[in-house]
Design goal:
single chain; about 550 residues; alpha+beta; 2 domains; 7-stranded mixed β-barrel; globular
Length: about 550
């Protein structure tokens, strides 16, 4: 009897303890307990960055598949990743304009997307459902995407994992690619836990964006006759208004050149769409949104109609309900009113995102003329930004630009076409002194930790040593090995000079606002050639088609 004297009391205590744990678990978030990300095995497998991995695609009708790549249709295959085989997976080509570019270059080196769970929902690679294999087009450095994702992850941003992979086809070498974690279910679970929120990839239907991201896009559609376009746009009631006055435009591409400098008295001012003082309120009827995207991809609130945000909702990556749509619209309204920012923005995450994003000068992005290439994550009405597609970063979108203007690009007016306030997810940082101070504080931390410490110089040297033999033997590469060596050395020098300029901007030596900059204060970058790193005109076998002369041409393409 003595053995069981306290048995009932022990059982009651255990039951009570279990009940308390259950209540805590069910109400964890309301009590301030953050959801834990999920640990998935693929993090330490394919995305081990200390080596180049191998991905062997096994397919009997590879030539037929390559010939139909622009259809972006999934076909079955098997893959062997680092000697581990996976059968019955799906593969297709991926990209938007890059699909046409590969054809124009006379090259079959497409980017690919592999879905492990396409035919069997239980099939994954150590928990990974989707994998992108990027062909590293228009990037002689082989490192722009890789470096940016590494910077983002290093600085606490939820970013895709990536690593280098030698692609084989039926055992034969195809080329050195960048393997990138798909921003879908596995990514969401890894970063936000299994009870994650909603994911979107906003993209304008007028600008394409690849399968599932705004529809397919044909570069031939860009070559619209200018005279006809101007005539139609002047006479059509539905034509989009011109960009706001004062924007200098590329003579050939019809876009402002980010960071282009022109003399204005004693000051040097980039004509990137800012009025005096650097900001203007977006005027939806006056065409002052800037860029070529629509207002919803800029995250501008217009009204409460679902149809006004089709470029967001139609590109949802998670299943969404009307309740989800209402919540997003309500948050956009608060964001645009600059009210309750802490409720509708993950301040820490978004500030860190823009620190890295604005460092790397990527104008093929939310802060550029196209206004795309980002994921929007929303949970309980709060937004954050997830980085995507940086192969044209470090000035690659405007490769002919003066290196000094890019190295010294102003960190407080980073929008290349349009106003800062035409990008609501960014503008709140500069509309509140405390947020601006936080942004500057984090920028200083980033420069100190990543560059001043010597971490970057050592890291880029290590990566170059690891991938160089694979680049040299790459049978489908878009550049020569000598161009790769020049490109990666230029990238290293660009980043160190950019870090020096940012430090000077933070210290007030160089102005951080475009219309206050003076060329005489700039960090000297005269020895750099931006195009050496690769750009939109680069690649084997051809040039990019010319961009349209103005945004109205895009909107007339059916």
């Amino acid at each position: 009897m003595s053995t069981h004297k306290y048995f009932d009391k022990i059982c009651c205590a255990v039951l009570a303890f279990t009940l308390v744990l259950t209540i805590l678990f069910m109400n964890a978030e309301s009590l301030g307990i953050q959801k834990s990300p999920s640990a998935l095995g693929y993090e330490t497998q394919l995305f081990d960055t200390s080596k180049v991995h191998t991905v062997d695609i096994i397919m009997n009708d590879w030539d037929e598949f390559i010939a139909s790549c622009t259809d972006e249709e999934y076909v079955p295959c098997s893959v062997i990743i680092d000697n581990k085989a996976y059968k019955n997976v799906a593969i297709r080509a991926k990209g938007n304009t890059s699909l046409s570019n590969v054809q124009n270059y006379g090259n079959d080196r497409y980017s690919f997307k592999i879905e492990f769970d396409h035919y069997d929902s239980a099939n994954t690679y150590y928990g990974l459902d989707k994998l992108s294999l990027n062909n590293i087009i228009q990037d002689n450095t082989y490192m722009k995407d890789y470096l940016t994702y590494q910077m983002m992850g290093y600085f606490g941003v939820s970013a895709p994992l990536c690593s280098y992979a030698q692609i084989l086809v039926n055992g034969e070498e195809w080329g050195l690619y960048l393997a990138v974690e798909g921003v879908e279910e596995s990514f969401l679970s890894r970063n936000y836990g299994n009870d994650y929120g909603e994911l979107y990839k906003p993209d304008s239907t007028s600008m394409g964006g690849g399968r599932g991201n705004g529809g397919k896009f044909d570069m031939d559609d860009w070559q619209v006759d200018q005279d006809s376009a101007d005539e139609n746009s002047d006479s059509s009631a539905n034509a989009k208004p011109d960009m706001h006055e004062g924007n200098n435009q590329f003579p050939e591409r019809g876009m402002q050149k980010p960071g282009e400098i022109k003399q204005q008295g004693e000051n040097m001012q980039p004509p990137n769409g800012f009025g005096q003082g650097g900001m203007q309120k977006p005027d939806m009827d006056g065409g002052k949104m800037g860029g070529m995207g629509s207002s919803d991809v800029s995250l501008i609130y217009s009204d409460d109609e679902y149809s006004s945000y089709s470029n967001i909702f139609d590109n949802a990556k998670t299943d969404i309900s009307d309740t989800d749509k209402d919540r997003l619209i309500a948050s956009l309204k608060k964001l645009n009113e600059n009210s309750s920012i802490e409720e509708v923005v993950d301040v820490e995450e978004v500030v860190r995102y823009f620190v890295v994003h604005n460092f790397v000068c990527n104008f093929d992005s939310y802060t550029g003329s196209m206004i795309h290439n980002y994921y929007l994550y929303e949970e309980d009405g709060q937004f954050s930004m997830i980085p995507w597609d940086y192969n044209l970063a470090f000035g690659g979108f405007v490769g002919g630009s003066d290196a000094a203007s890019l190295v010294n690009y102003p960190i407080d007016t980073p929008v290349s076409d349009g106003t800062v306030e035409s990008r609501p997810m960014l503008s709140w940082i500069f509309e509140n002194e405390n947020y601006t101070e936080l942004y500057h504080q984090y920028f200083a931390e980033f420069i100190s930790q990543y560059f001043d410490s010597g971490y970057f110089a050592e890291m880029i040297d290590d990566v170059k040593a690891i991938i160089s033999p694979y680049v040299e033997s790459d049978p489908t590469k878009f550049c020569t090995y000598e161009e790769f060596e020049k490109g990666i050395d230029t990238l290293g020098e660009f980043c160190l000079l950019r870090a020096e300029s940012v430090n000077a901007q933070l210290n007030g030596i160089i102005a951080a606002i475009s219309d206050e900059q003076d060329k005489e204060t700039f960090i000297d970058a005269s020895g750099l050639s931006i195009s050496a790193m690769g750009n939109m005109d680069g690649g084997k076998g051809g040039k990019m088609p010319e961009m349209p002369q103005n945004s109205r041409e895009i909107n007339q393409v059916e």
